[in-house]
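TEACHING EXERCISE
Course module: macromolecular assemblies
Task: Read the component lines below, then compare them to the predicted structure of the full complex.
Student: A.B.
Group: 4
Components provided:
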Amino acid sequence: MSFPFTEEQVTHYIKENRSHTILGQTAQYIPALARQDSSKLGIVVMDHQGETVCSGDWDVSFTLQSISKILSFISVCTYYGIESVLEKVDVEPTGEAFNSIIPFEIHRPGKPFNPLINAGAITVSSMLPGETIEDKFRLFLDFLEKLIGKRPHLDEEVYESEWNTAHRNRALAYYLKESNLLELEVEDALAIYLKQCSITVRLDELAKIGLIIAYNGVNPITGEKIFPKEVARIAKVLMVTCGMYNSSGKFAANVGIPAKSGVSGGIVASVPPTCLDDHSCPNQGYGIGVYGPAIDSNGNSTAGTMLLSQLSKAYDFSIF
Amino acid sequence: MSFPFTEEQVTHYIKENRSHTILGQTAQYIPALARQDSSKLGIVVMDHQGETVCSGDWDVSFTLQSISKILSFISVCTYYGIESVLEKVDVEPTGEAFNSIIPFEIHRPGKPFNPLINAGAITVSSMLPGETIEDKFRLFLDFLEKLIGKRPHLDEEVYESEWNTAHRNRALAYYLKESNLLELEVEDALAIYLKQCSITVRLDELAKIGLIIAYNGVNPITGEKIFPKEVARIAKVLMVTCGMYNSSGKFAANVGIPAKSGVSGGIVASVPPTCLDDHSCPNQGYGIGVYGPAIDSNGNSTAGTMLLSQLSKAYDFSIF
Amino acid sequence: MSFPFTEEQVTHYIKENRSHTILGQTAQYIPALARQDSSKLGIVVMDHQGETVCSGDWDVSFTLQSISKILSFISVCTYYGIESVLEKVDVEPTGEAFNSIIPFEIHRPGKPFNPLINAGAITVSSMLPGETIEDKFRLFLDFLEKLIGKRPHLDEEVYESEWNTAHRNRALAYYLKESNLLELEVEDALAIYLKQCSITVRLDELAKIGLIIAYNGVNPITGEKIFPKEVARIAKVLMVTCGMYNSSGKFAANVGIPAKSGVSGGIVASVPPTCLDDHSCPNQGYGIGVYGPAIDSNGNSTAGTMLLSQLSKAYDFSIF
Amino acid sequence: MSFPFTEEQVTHYIKENRSHTILGQTAQYIPALARQDSSKLGIVVMDHQGETVCSGDWDVSFTLQSISKILSFISVCTYYGIESVLEKVDVEPTGEAFNSIIPFEIHRPGKPFNPLINAGAITVSSMLPGETIEDKFRLFLDFLEKLIGKRPHLDEEVYESEWNTAHRNRALAYYLKESNLLELEVEDALAIYLKQCSITVRLDELAKIGLIIAYNGVNPITGEKIFPKEVARIAKVLMVTCGMYNSSGKFAANVGIPAKSGVSGGIVASVPPTCLDDHSCPNQGYGIGVYGPAIDSNGNSTAGTMLLSQLSKAYDFSIF
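Instructor-supplied answer key:
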């Protein structure tokens, strides 16, 4: 094991930060998210040998939500190459909300600013290989299975609720369609996008995903190369610049770890292996999964963000 | 010397990228910038012992322009602490242009998105310690002198031109004033901001600045600590997320080095020391100064950006 | 007959303005509109006795398109009262395009600015009385039948094309739905809206509609009161302030007649009876229908607008 | 006398509407406006023979503020012709606030939407004939003297306060300058604009101005023609479409009289002579001045607006 901390130390941080859950609340737009226990906070950290430190409410499963955006981006880039994907979506951060049409209309007929805002994510999801929605979704599950070692499943209740309340996403998608940025039919593009958001994961699975991104696409436990280094790098750039909704800049400043959050309260984070110039390596790279369903107005787990900030400062995880 | 390349190799890259100068043109809004030789391209790379590799049109001096924004931010944070500065300016990237009033008006009375857009930079400059413009500017020169080892001077012609054409900046500054975000008088805030933009530097000086940022505020040649590690980190975050105007995301994806550009065609870049997990260190940290006055529509040196991209790829300089 | 001009004089104006058709082109987004003969220009003017002056390409039929917006507004206001309608839609002009989401998102969760931009028109159409789309559409046809004396029909080809290309309108409607401004299901609201846009009319029918609006809701030929004076007045206000898309202000300044245009090239205009203070009445009120399918970038008939401008100046039709 | 009402009747309306003053408050941005007595409400109506009905707090003087915008527009159009003025400013309403930069930046480098938003008004003021500020201001006073029969004076205290707090207007003016829409120096353009806003008037003078606009530029009392009919018409169009800030549409719908308000609480309104088709003339045209310094969030007198609405409905003053 190569952890810089003991399970007890992590549990201490969990306890200290659990109080921050009262600063947020669960996402209210669909019942399945709203009824999550907002007092929960859990973490799994995985090292390059697959060992884990688990603490707090780690034995939970929840839906990927926006975390899926970075995964479909990686998947599509792996399949088609980065160049092809960047023809349809840019990689620039935007100060507007993740579901805003303003920047899009002002700069039209420009492509979406980046793959982590909804407009960009819908565009990317619609590029998933496959003729039908089922094909595309199967391929995305195949990719996730390669990442986490087991086939995740769709939370049908969440998907159905998402589908029925996706008015703003439909607005965005029809806007994209009108601008000739969406090759798929709008309802099909939404179906695949909302399905990917409704996939259930566990914290150890998130941690493994974070680990593989930290190791530039290679699973360090098995040595298997799952996606190219170039794709991993651009994924980390996006996680740093746009991964935490409209507080990505503050998260980069305070935490400094590539990460992507979702409104279910999950966060995947990638601590790349870093060594000092005296050749000692304070860490050899970790993947982190965090769950804290009380989210702030930006959509990020309140307690989860604070927990990551403290861990990063205490154990020097920042890439900056 | 610890360079991964020879001067000849760098000269080769200069030659290869000089053709990209024709894709841009010199900034046209003031004569002193417009009349720069748009075919120029030069670079100085400095290592942690103060050794340099100089190539192309490296023996030049030019004005800092927007590069000064990151320096005044570091200076003010060093003096007052990061917290005080972040009360007046946020650290979030924005997809709008560096001189846009749109995001500002939509989200008003919010503080400026970050210190590297003009609204944020004017706010930060106005915070420079000192009672008078002269005091504030002297203190900024003091700070630069500590960084580069000699006192830089103001290009009076550039300053006068900037002052006379600063209509958009005046609009921004009066907007800030109206929103109670500017404590100084507008004309005073503009004076100090435009003066800092009009300071002349040389490429080796830019490289040294980049080196000190890469070494988290310590001059590795002398061992002198010039600003706190925390300030250096947030500076690097801002350089990555917002340093290259509206192509910061693409620059992070393609180059991956914290950098800040100016419309004079200068770029300062900081390559932090990075080591692999086998304890070999491909680089021990560099500061880079680039000059290529032909800029693109975003305001970045066309050839300079390409040159940095090739060097980063060839010698693995990306932090991602 | 009470016309201030002879048919020959009107024909002279038609000839003079036909050349302006080359300054525009037919709407290109659906085949049925695109293939209209862009060189056409026709007019019918109807007086309070039902007499008409017809000139140019007057013997045509075409779809109402945006002209229907003012008619569904009148219909819904007549049924529910103005107050109820103004709870859901404002009556303020906007400088943004008729299909823009920008003002809407900036000022959210505000209601649509007015019933003549698409967002407002969709909101109003969805209020048409009736349980089903069929009921609502039947009621709208009933209302038109009362206005023009015969039951108009739906152009099925146009409706189908509109339905299949209505991406931007779907975006708007889903945006409305998400803001709780649309009680109907989005697809139902769009169906009724697009059906009303696809109703076929002739120029004499448009002229009669204009006449009834000019006479404040009373058909002066029969004396029948079809809608309240208050509704007619607010309709004329909307026609003046927002009736001609983003050149409504210029049209009011140059022509000064309440009017509403559509992208099919039709314009309905209402010349209210006006008398001078010496008690002579230069006109006793007219309804005007114009058809000129070559439209400008704002969506208004190029030649039709010029024709109305000349007639208004020559015969003092302006209400200002 | 040709009034449709007695002084007693008008006094009744004043009493009834005075309670609406508590729905607003005086403009707070400068002391001279803030300290006005917010409970005041007064009116002067003038007929074509110069007779007046005065009621409530009519014996007051106050500064023109935005009312001056329509007067400088009329003055400049009279001097240079409408065409020349419309090259620099459009006549389209905008849904954004009177001091917004948003529409301007989105549509840049477009000219200001209309002469009644601040950007347009500053542009128009800067066109006033004359070499110096003094010349321009003198010429504007000359024009006002022709309208009201005596030379009005500048309220120096108001002007000084306006000058010192005009941050937003300076922002707008520098924005205009940067877009090459302002020929004058910014500070000079602001001086003339703010001076015209700071001119003191009385209600009978406002009423006379309204009367002359209603009579298309002719003073009906003396028969003197002061400005062309075409200018009067476009002024009335602007008053209807943009005269009452962001509730111009609602004012047109509820009141239907061309009017212009200012944040001092003044409103000038023009009731054109209108006759019915039975040749009876319910009114022969009036000018109205209203004062009620308690303004709403849009900038319009709360009680003054209600008073005009009731009078318009009771005596059929609407042009629609």
